[in-house]
Amino acid sequence: MEVIHLKYPHQLQQRESIQPYSLAIGFFDGVHIGHQAVIEAAKQEGDKRQIPTAVMTFDPHPSLVLGGRNEKVFYITLLQQKLQLFEELGVDTVFVVHFTSDFAKLSPAAFIDTFIRGLNIQHVTAGFDFSFGAFGKGTLEDMRALSNGEYGVTVVDKKTDSLEKISSTRIRKLLQEGDMEAARTLLGRPFEIKGIVVHGDKRGRTMGFLTANVQALEGTYIPASGVYAVRLLVQNNWYDGVCNVGYKPTFKDPNDKQLSIEVHILNFEKNIYGEEVHVAWYKRIRSERKFDGIEALKMQIEKDKQEAIQFFHVMK
């Protein structure tokens, strides 16, 4: 899969000609099953026209530019994870458009001239609520009206389950609540983060539970504090585990707000400091709480471990 980074006004002068594409367009945070439906529709159109499928996404999040926000934005899927998911979905090319103030000022017509006609897009597919151009004034009806017959447009209706529309906002709320099973249903896969194993306080070692202290990549959305059944990918192998997300209230000063992600990997004793790992979240076992001493905590950790073992046994 080819990845092309564009910044307005973009330059593709190194290419003598640009091949035609069937394009799926959107921010696609989470690449959930609604987003997957948009990409699949674009792929079907590409197959029909015998042209490759491309995805156009944007970085950073538009709210950082449009809203003038100073705080961090946390993503369900960081850019590199999005790219990996696009590749797994069979996308041929990804256009990553750098979202800047100048880009945000483009009129809908100028956006189409530059990023649709200028990239030789033969067909555009997007979700029903996609908007573009300055202040998001451009709609998919405008996209179609401004085409002059030079490209087609497909609008993918909202995807719902028995409750409501499937959306990135809804998935974030589920992550805030720690409902990993519902999030997994909407994503079409377990929620996953990437990080590096770093040195922690090594307290788990003294209690007989070795843990990997995972430092998540900046911008990663971290689920609600609590204890979870997870799987951890390290050195190309997946292992079952139990993860504690939180502030370790049994040991820490309540004013210490340093969040930790600690994974006890089942049947694993290797030293993996410095390794890049993926943590896939399956089920919240319980909320984090303070215990009356180490022995009470050790007993609870053993219960958590057994619950995770049972969960993965049934799942397999």
Automatic annotation (TrEMBL):
EC numbers, comma separated: 2.7.1.26, 2.7.7.2
Keywords in alphabetical order: ATP-binding, FAD, Flavoprotein, FMN, Kinase, Multifunctional enzyme, Nucleotide-binding, Nucleotidyltransferase, Transferase
InterPro entries in UniProt: FAD_synthase, Riboflavin_kinase, Riboflavin_kinase_bac, Riboflavin_kinase_bac/euk, Riboflavin_kinase_dom_sf, Rossmann-like_a/b/a_fold
Top-level enzyme category: transferase
Origin superkingdom: Bacteria
Biological process (GO), any one: riboflavin biosynthetic process
Catalytic activity: riboflavin + ATP = FMN + ADP + H(+); FMN + ATP + H(+) = FAD + diphosphate
Statement: the UniProt record of this protein carries the keyword Zinc-finger: no
Pathway(s) this gene product operates in, as recorded in its UniProt entry: Cofactor biosynthesis; FAD biosynthesis; FAD from FMN: step 1/1; Cofactor biosynthesis; FMN biosynthesis; FMN from riboflavin (ATP route): step 1/1
One function term, GO molecular function aspect: ATP binding
Domain named Riboflavin kinase: residues: 186-313
PANTHER family linked to this entry: RIBOFLAVIN KINASE, RIBOFLAVIN KINASE/FMN ADENYLYLTRANSFERASE
NCBIfam families: PRK05627.1-3 (NF004160), PRK05627.1-5 (NF004162), ribF (TIGR00083)
Family to which this protein belongs: Belongs to the ribF family.
Name under which the protein is recorded: Riboflavin biosynthesis protein
Species the sequence originates in: Lysinibacillus sphaericus
Lineage of producing organism: Bacteria, Bacillati, Bacillota, Bacilli, Bacillales
